[in-house]
Amino acid sequence: MKRTLLLAFLIAWAAVAGAQDTPDTLVINGVTIIRDNKPVEREPKKGFLKSINTKKSLRNITTEWGMVDIGMSNFVDGTAYAGEAAQAYAPGSNEQWFTTKYFKSRNINVWIVTQRYNLIHHFLNLKYGLGLELNNYRFKNPVRFNPRPATDVVNPPVVSMDETPGRSYRKNKLAADYITIPLMLNFNFTPDRLYPFELSAGVSVGYLYAARNKTITSDEGKLKAKDNFELDPWKLSYVGDLTLGVVTLYGSYAFKSMYKRGLDHTPYNFGIRLRPADFFSKIQN
Fold first, then answer.
1. Tens digit of pLDDT for each residue in 24-56?
2. CA-to-CA distance for 176 and 158, rounded, in angstroms?
3. What is the pLDDT of residues 233-278, one digit of tens each?
4. E-state strands within 23-165
5. Do β-strands 197-217 and 169-188 pair in parallel, antiparallel, or remain unpaired?
């Protein structure tokens, strides 16, 4: 009995193994049809490293639209507050007046269009564009910018400290917006890769098209004072960015103070750049 069961088991096992390895056959009107039972090999999915090494076609001129920078705005304060110029612009001021709320002082740049022109083997490129640079400096103290100072004074005061009894501030910021044109040399260390390693450095020229002092207080509510507040209409800055795959970091540092007189505040920005092209390429993949 045991031998019979063992023999039956071996026969059944051999039949199953043979059925797996032997193709199915079917005879119809004398025609033999054979079906292969071998498993179908599927093409492996592209991994992360393989997608990084994917090559792209190279063009002498590449254009990008609608890039957005999101980051921080601030300035280096080199003002001599005891001097005549600072006291004429902001009477009674000191180094504490213009202290900013660091993480609430924000920079947003909207790059309408940027282009890159191949100079040497797509490794060295000329990079340029056109965009809007929006800077917001949030102050800790209730400083107020006067949009219409007295005209009968040669250098009228512009900034004062609000000491109204019982008034509290929810927001107090100076906004300075520029039309900006950057011009940079771009070094692309992986020009034929979809996710590159790039470094760019150069200068930008900005023109002030709008400025305002926005406040929200307990008794006045929301107020906007629009004026140039004797800000320098031109802003020249050192600019640069670093791209690692889909991540781009940017930064800028102005040549000089953003004020024509009184205050020596040299602005700088830094943050991360968002590319719509990277977003849409992820959706398509």
1. 555 554 555 555 555 555 555 555 444 445 566
2. 16
3. 999 999 999 999 999 999 999 999 999 999 999 999 999 999 876 6
4. 24-28, 31-35, 61-77, 106-120, 124-138, 143-145, 159-161
5. antiparallel
Q: Are 230 and 218 in contact (CB under 8 A)?
A: no
Whether residues 120 and 251 share a domain: the answer is: yes
Q: CB–CB of 271/111 below 8 Å?
A: no
Tokens matching residue 101: 């709320």
In a domain, 103, yes or no: yes
Which residue reads 């992986």 in tokens?
190
Which of 107, 171, 164 has the alpha carbon at shortest distance from 140? 171
The answer to whether the CB of 169 falls within 8 A of the CB of 140 is: no
The CB density around residue 141, as the number of other CB atoms within 10 Å, is 13
Model confidence, pTM: 0.78
Please check whether residues 190 and 148 belong to one and the same domain: yes
Neighbours of 280 (CB within 10 A): 10
Residues 29 and 65 in one domain: no
β-strand pairing of 106-120 with 124-138 = antiparallel
- Number of folded domains in the chain? 2
Give the range of the structural domain holding residue 279, as residue numbers without chain letter.
61-284
Examine residue 40 and state whether it is found in any structural domain, yes or no.
no
Q: Which tokens is 163 given? A: 């000491």
